[in-house]
């Protein structure tokens, strides 16, 4: 039966800061003075005005010896070599694809950086160029790794491993890149029954765990069979948990998502997005994470 | 309309999910997203409302001005709709990009309110053939998150509920010329009866089933939708089909039945929240835009 819940808006409560680990962070807003000491070199996010170093973005101040920079909290993705990203193909060009990764410029995936089916290693011919659209079309999602960063900040991707490639059925959640914690691995098979890819660019991909690892496919053949209902429930619940964590500005990593999933089990999947349930679940998650640390 | 690009596999996942009555965010086919409604957010209007349905954010302002009645309806006032698709919602609306969508929505609103029973227009008349109240309803799209028409119609109903039109008295001089006097008391006003104001329910056909309150991703998988406007008693006042796909007459009938059912519960929920807000009176903490 139809369920409609309407409510009056409630002013957002400021959540108290969790116990500071590793010293207080120096938070600044645009226009705040960072320091009046002229001995520092200015890095990203700062500018000099009347012998004062002033922040131009809202974020935390980072100091490395003599270099002062401000790392913004809400920003577009800035690529770094070795990052895992999930991107969407926007254009198919002559020998490359343009991929949207929530950064200032579209990323580039060269045809030579892409795995051929069967894992063969050979020089790409003109036939490969013409068959590009058979591999990846506009709108397709891929997982890739950052190979290099151009001087203008554009990122060059590669899928030269069997774990990268075109993504099949699943759900994409877009979050701010600063909320994805840097870890050793970003591909997780969660024990609750689904797998998740935490892209450094803020694209989170949740998908059903494949039964067997298709090694020879190399990530090109997509499984188009209907996903069973039990897997769907797990995926929807995970998706709502990720949205809840992001709304409450918690860092995303496999443990936090798993704890949030476990905390949400008593509630129905669609109730997780209600503000009061969201707060309750995230509070419990935060408590468990603090217990884990301390 | 703002749209997202999806891969074929993602669309397939959504279609199969709808088939099994479990959408991507866990809702059933007839569930709405959590909605936030607040009235009286703009101070220099006669009535205003803001509705947030998921990622869709709509602001409606109603201004009551005096004008001359239309020639064919000399003893009634009327409503004028204007929809502004702000570039805040999506970059596609920059410059004149949002004009087409804006006129489409405005025309739909005119059609929805064209029924004589929706709003009591006779109460808006001051002097037959000479003076009447014209309600200018301005809709502002702040964010596009799918299901625009429903959110707009909810916001329009809430704004009309909140509208306060000052009471006027018509004085006649010895020469016969009429003078209109506005009462001095700012709280002396007439309210509109919104019991019969219809709300739009959009039913999007995805695969073999239809869903209510589609998100942007679901709208990308849907080929045809049916917009119906339902009053609180379950009566249909208008119907419109959008989309490039075709609909079977059987499906249209099923969608109409679903729409009537969902529409009735929508009205009940909305009226409850409006009454709750009204009962809080002056002690209500206004959240507005900086909450």
UniProtKB/TrEMBL annotation, chain A:
Assembly behavior: Component of the RNA exosome core complex (Exo-9), composed of EXOSC1, EXOSC2, EXOSC3, EXOSC4, EXOSC5, EXOSC6, EXOSC7, EXOSC8 and EXOSC9; within the complex interacts with EXOSC4 and EXOSC7. The catalytically inactive RNA exosome core complex (Exo-9) associates with the catalytic subunit EXOSC10/RRP6. Exo-9 may associate with DIS3 to form the nucleolar exosome complex, or DIS3L to form the cytoplasmic exosome complex. Exo-9 is formed by a hexameric base ring consisting of the heterodimers EXOSC4-EXOSC9, EXOSC5-EXOSC8 and EXOSC6-EXOSC7, and a cap ring consisting of EXOSC1, EXOSC2 and EXOSC3.
GO terms under biological process: CUT catabolic process; exonucleolytic trimming to generate mature 3'-end of 5.8S rRNA from tricistronic rRNA transcript (SSU-rRNA, 5.8S rRNA, LSU-rRNA); nuclear polyadenylation-dependent rRNA catabolic process; poly(A)-dependent snoRNA 3'-end processing; TRAMP-dependent tRNA surveillance pathway; U4 snRNA 3'-end processing
InterPro entries in the record: Exosome_cplx_N_dom, Exosome_RNA_bind1/RRP40/RRP4, KH_dom_type_1, KH_dom_type_1_sf, NA-bd_OB-fold, S1_domain, S1_RRP4
Compartment(s) where it occurs, according to its Swiss-Prot or TrEMBL record: Cytoplasm; Nucleus, Nucleolus
Family: Belongs to the RRP4 family.
SUPFAM superfamilies: Eukaryotic type KH-domain (KH-domain type I), Nucleic acid-binding proteins, Ribosomal L27 protein-like
Domain S1 motif: 80-160
Record's keyword terms, sorted: Cytoplasm, Exosome, Nucleus, Phosphoprotein, RNA-binding, rRNA processing
Main localization of the protein described in the UniProt heading: cytoplasm
Domain of life where this protein originates: Eukaryota
Coiled coil regions, renumbered to chain: none
GO cellular component terms, A-Z: cytoplasmic exosome (RNase complex); nuclear exosome (RNase complex); nucleolus
GO molecular function terms listed in the Swiss-Prot or TrEMBL record: RNA binding
Protein name (record): Exosome complex component RRP4
Gene3D superfamilies tied to this protein: 2.40.50.100, Nucleic acid-binding proteins (2.40.50.140)
Keyword Nucleus in record: yes
From TrEMBL, chain B:
Primary localisation category: cytoplasm
Pfam families linked to this entry: RNase_PH (PF01138), RNase_PH_C (PF03725)
Domain of life: Eukaryota
Gene3D superfamilies in alphabetical order: GHMP Kinase, N-terminal domain
Keyword Acyltransferase part of the UniProt annotation: no
Residue span, Exoribonuclease phosphorolytic domain: 32-166, 196-261
CDD domains per the UniProt record, alphabetical: RNase_PH_RRP42
Cellular component aspect of the GO annotation: cytoplasmic exosome (RNase complex); nuclear exosome (RNase complex); nucleolus
Source organism (scientific name): Podilymbus podiceps
A GO molecular function held by the record: mRNA 3'-UTR AU-rich region binding
Gene Ontology terms: biological process: exonucleolytic trimming to generate mature 3'-end of 5.8S rRNA from tricistronic rRNA transcript (SSU-rRNA, 5.8S rRNA, LSU-rRNA); nuclear mRNA surveillance; nuclear polyadenylation-dependent rRNA catabolic process; rRNA catabolic process; TRAMP-dependent tRNA surveillance pathway; U1 snRNA 3'-end processing; U4 snRNA 3'-end processing; U5 snRNA 3'-end processing
Subunit organization: Component of the RNA exosome core complex (Exo-9), composed of EXOSC1, EXOSC2, EXOSC3, EXOSC4, EXOSC5, EXOSC6, EXOSC7, EXOSC8 and EXOSC9; within the complex interacts with EXOSC2 and EXOSC4. The catalytically inactive RNA exosome core complex (Exo-9) associates with the catalytic subunit EXOSC10/RRP6. Exo-9 may associate with DIS3 to form the nucleolar exosome complex, or DIS3L to form the cytoplasmic exosome complex. Exo-9 is formed by a hexameric base ring consisting of the heterodimers EXOSC4-EXOSC9, EXOSC5-EXOSC8 and EXOSC6-EXOSC7, and a cap ring consisting of EXOSC1, EXOSC2 and EXOSC3.
Membrane spanning residue stretches: none
Protein name per Swiss-Prot or TrEMBL: Exosome component 7
Protein family membership: Belongs to the RNase PH family.
Subcellular location: Cytoplasm; Nucleus, Nucleolus
